[in-house]
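Exam revision sheet. Question 4 asks you to relate a sequence to its structure. Input first:
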Amino acid sequence: MAQSLALKAVGTTDDETTVLEALEYQQKFDDFNSLQLEVNSIANSLSHLGYLESKLLDLKKTSDSSFVATYFLGGHYTMARIYFDPDFNTKILKLVSNSIAERYFEVDINTLEASLQTLNAEIANTGDPFSTLRLTNIKKEGGVLLADLKIVSQHPRTIDTVIVKGYDKFPKSFVKRYLKIKSKQDFNLKTIKEKTEALENLQFAAQIKDPEVLFTRDSTLLYIYVEKQKSNTFDGFLGFGTNTDTDKIEFDGYLNLNLINNLNYGESFRLLYKSDESEQKTFDVKAKLPYILGSPIGIQLGLNIFKKDSSFVTTTQFAKMDYQFDPKNSVALGINTQASTNLLDNPILTINDFKSTFYNLSYNHSEPQRYDKLFPINFMFDVSFGMGNRFIDDTDQSQTKLELNSFKIVNLNFRNSIYGQINTAILHSDTYVENELFRFGGINSIRGFEENSLAANLYMVFNTEYRYKVSNNLYVNSIIDLAYYENQILDIKSKLLGLGFGFGVLTQAGLFKLNYSNGSTENQSIKLSNSKIHISLSAIF
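Answer key, structure tokens:
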């Protein structure tokens, strides 16, 4: 068995030996090479602590297995004062120092090396990746190290070519417009990394690893690593409850198909068909085409047909032009037209044929929740304001419309979170007809009520859930929904309450959710016979 070697470090005085003992250096070694590395490490540690004049005087073998290293420490320097040129970017000095004068800054001597590395990295990030920092005219005065800071600079770099690896058909317009990375931009690696993090906001792509750069003598190549994600969804739910008039179980449900980026253009297409227990049918189709012809402008188109039993049918069409400022914020201008037809054989005053046209301004903000497949969006705010006119026969009525939808997830810790959503819509007009009112209620509105069973010219719904994440793929939640609505045609002002619970599980097929809820009005107590069970499955493909 090999004999271990012992090391003892001493100074030229008792005080110096005390400093060395405080280093808590390694004292036992298996071989002489390891011992010699530790001897050199002690010397470096002394320099970092401010003993700039320190040096190894002797390494002496005192027995077959014992060595003594003798060091001279010299003066102790605690502060470094670094002078810089007038054209130096003083903003980056705030990263390393709290003491900045007009021509110099000060740092603790034990952080000097790390401070210079930080400054060098910042200078490299701003377009000069091969620059280096040097200290010249080094002096020592009264326990303070004095030196001049010099930048050895190369020619600043610009991005010449952007190359996407991993997803060769990634839409080029998203590099230029969404990430805002263009050729001939000043090279700044820190800014580039911040921009590519926005890929996590996209449903159809994700960043595999940090971007990399290849420098040649006359060009700079930027490589972005992206992977295509499954983003198409097929969503449906089945709901059933007891009809209080017939005491029979009635069913309702819908199909919701979302196709995203199937043409590798970043486009999206949504098709919704809904048939509910109140003999209401909804057909809704929407398409979004981003960055038309490589410009920052996108187009949104939509068609909605709503039929209420044999009372009326309303057709709504819209077209929008949107501009996305950055991955989180966008605005849109659009036009919305609506036409409704009375289907009753015996017409009533509250339902009438009409046409309307609205001009809308909308704003959208969203923030993703990274690495969370159950709840990928943490915050969303969407608001739209429109002004227009409604025409009934030869009567023209000015109207305004406001719609707001926003939600936020407050994460208390990994397993516990609180979800809150506000959904508000207001139609302001001197007169109203039933077939132009907003319709709400159901699994995507106030739960415990039939789908689209409530009509209002004004409503506000506040949904809340307490969520407990059992695992990364399973959660349970409470349901507390509050609502207020007004229907001036029926002279109704009412408050609503929805209570219940549910759970969701992420399977290989998609997200499966089940909710049990019960709704009541302020004049009606909760009855178990009014309970609703909603089952949905959002399949991802």
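Marking note for examiners. The CA atoms of residues 413 and 493 lie 39 Å apart.
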